[in-house]
Amino acid sequence: MSDLLLRDGLVLDVRSGDYFEASLRCVDGRIVEIGPGLTASAEARIVDLAGAVVLPGLIDAHVHVTAATAALGDLPTWSPSYVAAHAARIMGSMLRRGFTTVRDAAGADYGLADAQAEGLIVGPRLAFCGKALSQTGGHGDLRGRGASAADDHPCCAGLGQVADGVDAVRVAARNELRKGAHHIKVMASGGVASPTDRIDSTQYSMEELRAVVEEAEAANRYVAAHAYTARAVNRALEAGVRSIEHGNLIDERSVELFLAHDAYLVPTLVTYWALKQEGKAHGLPADSHRKVDEVLEGGLRALERAARGGVKLVYGSDLLGGMHRYQSHEFLLRGEVQQPIDVIRSATVTAAELLGLAGEIGEVEVGARADLVVLDRDPLTEVGVLAATRHIVHVVQEGRIVSDGKAA
Q1: Which CATH number fits domain 3-56+363-403: 1.10.472.10, 3.30.70.890, 2.30.40.10, 2.40.50.140?
Q2: For residue 272, what pLDDT is reported?
Q3: Taking a C-beta distance cutoff of 8 angstroms, is the pair 316, 267 a contact?
Q4: 368 close to 31: Cβ distance less than 8 angstroms
Q5: Which of 137, 190, 241, 345 is most deeply buried (CB count within 10 A of its CB)?
Q6: What predicted TM-score, i.e. pTM, was given to this entire model?
Q7: Would you list the domain boundaries of the chain?
């Protein structure tokens, strides 16, 4: 039995936005007691927090742990074992930043999730979708114009697979669900990293989108859709997609549809900021780099519009290659528009709801998993505290202190 007692912390109730003084006892990966003056067994590890701030473990709902390069078209040529080694390194750094759970938005599979769960990889708990579904010439089709054959062998590394037509997308979705996917990802618009599509294109017919949603719902799972423009976002929401990834160019109709369908928006502002700064140095092709400006400027405006309209917002980073180190910089960018507590909620309780893990993660409550981040400064005063690992005193995952947050 593992037993951890954290004494005298300042615990953040992320729902109310208030702090309360308490000790926390964690046994076998769960929080079992919260309150003053707690005692533990003789075998327990006892840590005096001396008033340090305690938050739930952070959740990043849009990562690509296998994206060790921004040249995504190169990944299928890499050895899967080599990609897995990179993924282990990337995941370890995420955990040291305080992210105890992440949702992979294409690329990771059951092998990485199982390896983390079994302790073979030290990193965040991993919700995966396998490979994203893309139409020919869509955001997940990374062939250049001169390429003809598509090699979507399941053993090859890569983020996407091409499937055209209702029958084909049903088979592709069912196959990912067969392998244990927590959600299905579809490419519903053009994107930055894909070589042959336009940002403002819509992708997949309504019939194809609805077919994927039907397959996911039949398995008690949901669909996440990559989409930028209002036209693409609105089509996806009307088809029943549960979460929109990016959404940089949404309009007021989009906000109405988010509310009507009880859907989530996962902005990923930091990836465009990083791609603008360093994308070329990390392998982003020139054609893709030229697309960055189209979505960068709209991102903050879209976030402000969605927040003002009451859309459920979830934290996402979507970084590639050597830019993964900027994962926590998303807190700073969102802090330009949102209040600190709202940014924190997006990376805790709201993200947990999207993942179907409300009550399990994202809150400091008795019965929840003992995933915690201990800070030496107050993030409600300055949300940028979460962007600097020097302020992380401890990261606790499943009731074990796994990191002091340094060197992430």
Answers
A1: 2.30.40.10
A2: 86
A3: yes
A4: yes
A5: 241
A6: 0.94
A7: 3-56+363-403, 58-354
Per-residue pLDDT, 152: 59
Q: Long-range contacts: 229-235, Cβ < 8 Å, 24+?
A: 229/189, 229/199, 229/200, 229/202, 230/254, 231/200, 231/202, 232/188, 232/189, 232/201, 232/202, 232/203, 233/188, 233/189, 233/257, 235/188, 235/202, 235/206, 235/209
47 forms bridges with which residues in the sheet?
Answer: 6
Output the pLDDT for position 396. 97
* Contact present, 181 and 128 (Cβ < 8 Å): yes
Report the C-alpha gap between 124 and 274 in whole angstroms.
Answer: 22
Identify which of 22, 17, 29, 40 has the alpha carbon closest to the alpha carbon of residue 396: 29
Q: Does CATH place domain 58-354 in 3.30.360.10?
A: no
Structure tokens at 182: 């927590």
In one letter, which amino acid is 394?
H
Question: What are the residue ranges in the chain where pLDDT is below 50?
Answer: none
Q: What is the pLDDT of residue 298?
A: 80
Tell me what pLDDT residue 7 has: 96
Owner of token pair 């073979």? 120
